[in-house]
Amino acid sequence: MATQTLPAGTQGAPAQTAAQDKAPAASRREPGKTRFDVIVVGAGPAGVSAAITAAKAGLSVLILERGDYPGSKNVMGGVLYRQPTDVILPGFWREAPLERHLVEQGYWLMSERGATKFSYRGEDWDAEPYNAFTVLRARFDRWYAQQAEKAGAILVPETTVDEVLVRDGQAVGVRVGRDQGEIYANVVILADGVNSLLAKSLGLHQEWEPHTIALAVKEIIALPREKIESRFQIEGDQGVAYELLGSISKGMVGIGFLYTNKDTISIGMGCMLSDFARTGIKPYELLDQLKQHPAIKPVLAGGETREYMAHLIPEGGYNSLPKLYMGGLLVVGDAAQFVNALTREGSNMAMISGHLAAMTAIRAHQRGDFSAASMAYYRDLLENSFILQDLRRFRKIMPFVESRHELITVYPELLAELLQDFYTVDSVPKTQLFRRMMRKIRARRRWTSVLGDLWKGLRALS
Amino acid sequence: MSTSIEDKLYTLTFKPDKESHLVPNQDLCRQCADKPCLNFCPAHVYSWEGDHLAVAFEGCVECGACRIGCPYHSIAWRYPRGGFGVMYKFG
């Protein structure tokens, strides 16, 4: 067991250790002399959530972050969910740097020259404690990590972890790319994001396949508040979030998004990496074309691009989960592929998985057992949560969409044609119009295929 | 409203390291017919210079697309050293 190598005095009084270590960094500079209950690699939503829960329980926690500050490397579309975040940090929404609370969410089905909009706006979402928020990760993550520090965790930025230290098949610490060298812990929590080079180096997963990974690009477009509010019919801190689906992905499996922030708009587009590789379409040109779409162009008009970014999204789901734990180690968030591509959930799974990992570490600490058998409790917690239950339930949906990726283009186009016909008053008798509409459906897709799409689609969801 | 990739990258703050964190195996790149990285890299890091793959690593946004998407797994890919690389203000 790893506890044998402990320097005296650091075990058994974890909270105190954290407080003492905070003042001088000197102890961290001595290789092999520093020890924590928990080392968290990566200060994104998953890692910070793990750190907050573990530190609140009195464990000594070290968070290592490779960026200048937490959030400086982090990207998402921008929706943060209230309930899961409240689990970790009750009432966070009163002080966190959030952009807008969502009062409307929906889909825009995009055809070449139009969009069929399907969305819901609800008054309930306009009242505290709200349902979901738009956030900018460089701001939110920085604040979120500060809350972990307030709970007693130690945050060391500008530090890349090069290696997980393993003794007798059990993780015992990390080697960092700064002078500190080796740092030891009873539990290492890997929250190192979608690429998770560390989980891969430990053999917890093979290289991700390009058809399980989406490449997303996004722009932050600045506009005066009043313009955003009048264009989206919102006021105060109300916000909207739309997913954009259809011809905009040029036949690739992918989805766009349009979210309102306080004085910026987040617009982006993600498609499977394998589709980009196959088609030769440049992601940034795809995004530019989306910005020129007749349904998008007017809402961005006069805006100025403030930032451009790119990020991978792990969409392999249940079928490509890595091994989620080993002795002394747990994998959380994107590193564990915890994303529900169908419902664009990711940040919530990251946070709750981090929380469950921390609960596993706390239990292991109480029992003094950090073996793989003890870490397996994390898997049980995940199985009993929405995370693995949802990922398992939707495991067939991405293979279905990939096998019939033409659907993403066919149905939005068809819907646009039909609605255009329906709303075009041209003195044609309705019987004749309906016949024309039926012919258009047949021209796009045979009835048997439509039924097949429906049947197979429902089966993929069951 | 349309902006070139150069304009897009210009919105970003980078702290470039001295040496590249992306190292392609040029022999493999020469064998590669399609060179999909030239197109799918969202930061246009890669360009083909007749007989070798040029790597503008200073403008890399560290997404990992080339690491996973290269059909030959030709890119030796690591993160820039701590504190180096792209620095998002909005994210």
Give an overview in words.
The complex is a heterodimer of chains A (462) and B (91). Chain A is α/β, with parallel strands linked by helices and 462 residues long. Helices cover 38% and strands 24% of the residues of chain A. Chain A contains 17 helices and 17 strands. In chain A, the strands form two sheets. In chain A, strands 3, 4, 5, 6, 11, 12, 13, 14 and 15 form a nine-stranded mixed β-sheet that branches. In chain A, strand 8 (161-167) and strand 9 (170-176) form a beta hairpin. The longest helix of chain A has 21 residues, at 347-367. Chain A is globular. Chain B has helices spanning 5-10, 26-31, 37-40, 65-69, and strands at 13-15, 22-24, 46-48, 53-55, 75-77, 85-87. Chain B has a two-stranded antiparallel sheet. Chain B has a two-stranded antiparallel sheet with strand order 2-5. Chain B has a two-stranded antiparallel ribbon with strand order 3-4. Chain B is built from four helices and six strands, in the order H-E-E-H-H-E-E-H-E-E. Chain B has a domain at 20-81: Alpha-Beta Plaits (2-Layer Sandwich), CATH 3.30.70. Chain B is an alpha+beta fold and 91 residues long. The two termini of chain B are 20 Å apart. Classes of the chains: A alpha/beta (462), B alpha+beta (91). The interface between A and B is large, with 59 and 40 residues.
